[in-house]
Specification:
The chain is an alpha+beta fold and about 500 residues long. It is built from 12 helices and 30 strands.
């Protein structure tokens, strides 16, 4: 491709209001352009994206995958529908297939989870990325630690244990001033105390001596009342998984009132509670209590009456729960659940993808002729996120340093000088490289050497070849790798 005909101009200065280096360089190098309709990939950016897709395809193919065309197959119901006619029995298994759009998604039916995990790892290695594998819900996530990352995870400052907030194991310490002696239950007026912060301030109590109530509707039918210590938050992901994986949404004020609770002053005491998981139904309130309620005593909690709270509320004396489980969301500063001594610290990162494993609603006949659920392993890699991570990881002050497998072109050929023989030699070398199937970006523009060298560094192709009046007199062309300081004169016929 000739640079003189390329659509998209390089920019000398970083665009305003763009903090990430990857985004700055992507715009400066004419890879993308932000528009009112979103980012548009320009030719160089699209070529880099296509080369990345080729890497992902190759590694998923190597894992035994077969590509299908579908916009999104992340929902279990779609997988079950797809398998209904084409996966009948154990004889049809295992199967691995994948689809590529904004995300490269792999699916392995009755196959080893590590098959897809290894494919992702190989793809990252080819892109010269070294993400961390961290614990995640039903699997792992791949994250790249970065101070300006848009995602985050928790990592122990002592043992190195790392996990997403929804999956991290942590230890909840007892409230510092907790009184182990159960005091008599009281009801107190607490005007304008419809938040934990307001309640704690009014009663002069630490937040860990209060109980927080969150109310949801599960599967559009079941009222779910979640209780957690006031200094903690609830992981909806954990709650959803505990209930069976169906849809979960916040309850409306009308639904809360129908359940017998009062927004801002809600309490599990006095509700019609399902006594056990087996009794869950529309006629009961399902109360899920986080294990943190056992770390203290004499809590302040809503009295289901506007302007009033209970004091010295204790479990199980004063209220019951359908389930007691780990549903709290870990936060920065809690003790690590692995080593028990270190502290979990929130770490910024870019999430590149992940792998999961779960039992699908899709079934196949076992050797005994009975339907059995299919185990599904899934992988996903964020294509645009990967491309941004590559640039964020591989750059210097002058511009991008593309890994060879992803670079839009391998060679960046520069023509410098006024002599006719220089132009002829550069044109001939370009033609010969193309004939041999090489990927070449040819800067044939009538620009100064400074502009051409600056653009070559900014665009970041692995190898720069300069044909100039000076290099021809020295015996050929000047060849320099983008990542190296050294350069050498190489005979033209040796390059071709």
């Amino acid at each position: 491709m000739r640079l003189s005909t390329l659509f998209g101009k390089t920019l000398r200065e970083p665009p305003a209001a763009t903090e990430l280096i990857s985004r700055q360089l992507a715009q400066r190098a004419a890879l993308i352009r932000p528009t009112s309709a979103g980012d548009v990939y320009l030719p160089l950016g699209w070529r880099a994206r296509e080369r990345l897709l080729n890497v992902l395809r190759a590694e998923l193919d190597a894992a035994g995958g077969q590509e299908i065309s579908v916009s999104d197959l992340s929902a279990d119901s779609l997988i079950a529908e797809l398998c209904r006619r084409d996966v009948i029995s154990y004889r049809d298994l295992p199967k691995v297939f994948y689809s590529i759009g904004a995300t490269a998604r792999g699916y392995a039916l009755q196959a080893d989870f590590d098959t897809l995990r290894a494919a992702c790892a190989r793809a990252f290695a080819i892109c010269d990325l070294k993400p961390l594998e961290i614990e995640a819900d039903s699997g792992i996530d791949f994250v790249l630690t970065h101070e300006k990352g848009l995602d985050s995870f928790l990592q122990c400052d002592t043992c190195g244990y790392a996990a997403t907030a929804g999956a991290a194991e942590f230890k909840i310490d007892p409230c510092a001033d907790a009184d182990a002696t159960s005091l008599p239950l009281e009801k107190a007026a607490t005007p304008n105390c419809n938040t934990i912060a307001a309640l704690a301030a009014f009663l002069d109590l630490p937040k860990c001596r209060t109980l927080k109530a969150l109310m949801h509707i599960y599967d559009e039918s079941e009222f779910v009342f979640v209780v957690v210590r006031g200094d903690l938050d609830v992981s909806e992901q954990k709650v959803r998984r505990l209930l069976g994986g169906g849809p979960l949404r916040p309850a409306t004020e009308a639904e809360i009132a129908d359940a017998g609770a009062v927004p801002g002053y809600a309490s599990p005491r006095g509700l019609h509670i399902a006594p056990s998981p087996a009794d869950r139904s529309q006629t009961f309130v399902t109360v899920i209590a986080d294990e943190s309620i056992d770390t203290s005593a004499n809590y302040a909690a809503g009295a289901n009456e506007a302007g009033y709270h209970f004091l010295n509320l204790n479990y199980p004396r004063d209220f019951k729960a359908t389930l007691v489980a780990k549903v709290a969301l870990p936060v920065d500063g809690l003790h690590c659940g692995d080593c028990k001594t270190g502290l979990l610290r929130e770490t910024s990162a870019f999430r590149l993808g992940g792998c999961r494993q779960w039992d699908s609603t899709a079934t196949a006949l076992s050797p005994e002729g009975r339907p059995q659920p299919l185990t599904v392993a899934t992988s996903e890699m964020d294509v645009d996120g990967l491309l941004a991570a590559i640039i964020e990881t591989h750059h210097d002050q002058a511009g991008i340093l593309w890994p060879e497998a992803i670079a839009p072109f391998h060679y960046h050929l520069l023509k410098l000088g006024k002599a006719p023989e220089t132009a002829t030699a550069a044109d001939q070398l370009y033609a010969e490289l193309l004939m041999k199937g090489k990927r070449v970006l040819y800067d044939d523009r009538d620009e100064s050497a400074g502009v051409k060298f600056a653009d070559a560094d900014l665009l970041g192709m692995p190898v720069r070849i300069t044909v100039s009046d000076k290099s021809l007199k020295a015996g050929g062309a000047e060849v320099k790798r983008r990542s190296a300081a050294d350069k050498e004169i190489v005979a033209l016929d040796s390059i071709a």
